[in-house]
Specification:
This protein is mainly α. The protein folds into 2 domains: about 80 residues; about 70 residues. It is about 75% helix and about 0% strand. It contains 5 helices and no strands. Helix 1 packs antiparallel against helix 3 and helix 4 runs antiparallel to helix 5. It starts with a helix and ends with a helix. The model has no long low-confidence stretch (mean pLDDT about 85).
Length: about 150
């Protein structure tokens, strides 16, 4: 029983680290780290380098896909079927993965995608990540405390 709890804590920690890497490197794809002087902090100059954050984003995305594949094959998501929170997470992840795949294909040599598709994929990816952040904040800071408060009654 303890090893299962230990694996659960490790997978939760790894998931959090990968999400943090994804959000940090995703924001790094936009030129905000140099503009808002984050890159001027000693030791953070690399954050303003587009190619560093680009590779970091790809590595973190590959790790996230691995975590998702592990969760699906280990049956963690589909024990009795996901709750509403699980379906929302699946929908948002699907949106992010699909738009991310289109953006990755766009960067491959020899692929010429229509500009409208690229713009749509970019906006969908950004909107999906903002939605993921907003939903995460909702479930952590609003929904969970309210549920715990109702349990005490």
């Amino acid at each position: 029983m303890k090893s299962n709890s230990k694996n659960s804590r490790l997978s939760t920690w790894l998931y959090g680290v990968v999400l943090a890497m994804l959000f940090f490197s995703g924001f790094g794809q936009m030129p905000i780290f140099k503009r808002y002087y984050l890159a001027d902090i000693p030791g953070m100059a690399w954050a303003a380098d587009f190619y560093v954050t680009h590779v970091m984003h790809y590595i973190a995305a590959a790790l996230l896909l691995g975590i998702l594949a592990y969760a699906l094959t280990a049956g963690k998501t589909f024990g009795q079927g996901p709750a509403v929170r699980g379906w929302v997470r699946i929908l948002v992840f699907g949106l992010l993965v699909l738009s991310g795949v289109v953006l990755t294909i766009k960067n491959l040599p020899g692929w010429d995608l229509p500009p409208a598709l690229i713009v749509t994929a970019n906006l969908t990816h950004i909107a999906g990540s903002m939605l993921f952040l907003a939903l995460g904040a909702y479930f952590v800071f609003i929904r969970r405390p309210a549920r715990e408060k109702n349990k005490r009654r």
